[in-house]
Design goal:
Elements lengths: L1 E10 L2 E10 L10 E7 L4 E4 L1 H9 L3 E2 L1 H9 L2 H4 L3 H11 L1
Parallel strand pairs: 1-5
Antiparallel strand pairs: 1-2, 2-3, 3-4
């Protein structure tokens, strides 16, 4: 299964994350299938490749909880045709 998740990089205590599409059985910092964005929790900076993320979600990729929150704040699910169904079904499962 393909997951949209965070890949850690940066110096100690100055971490940043890349939002990537990876196989769910791959290790956290392994080679991603595709890099879809950037997230820096210290400055709250986010850069997203929205068309690529929407394409991956339509193909059935599942975002992790943290990535889902980042995408929700960026209104990515509104651009997805069935975004409300995906968001509500994942929230109900939690």
């Amino acid at each position: 299964m393909i997951k949209l998740r965070l890949k850690r990089y940066g110096k100690k205590r100055e971490t940043s994350y890349r939002i990537v599409a990876m196989n769910s059985s791959s290790r956290r910092d392994g080679r991603p299938l595709e890099e879809l964005g950037f997230y820096n929790p210290r400055s709250n900076e986010t850069r997203l490749d929205v068309p690529a993320i929407v394409k991956r979600l339509q193909q059935g990729a599942q975002p992790t909880d943290t990535v889902r929150d980042i995408l929700r704040k960026a209104n990515v699910f509104e651009q997805l045709g069935a975004g409300a169904n995906l968001e509500s079904s994942n929230s109900a499962a939690s």
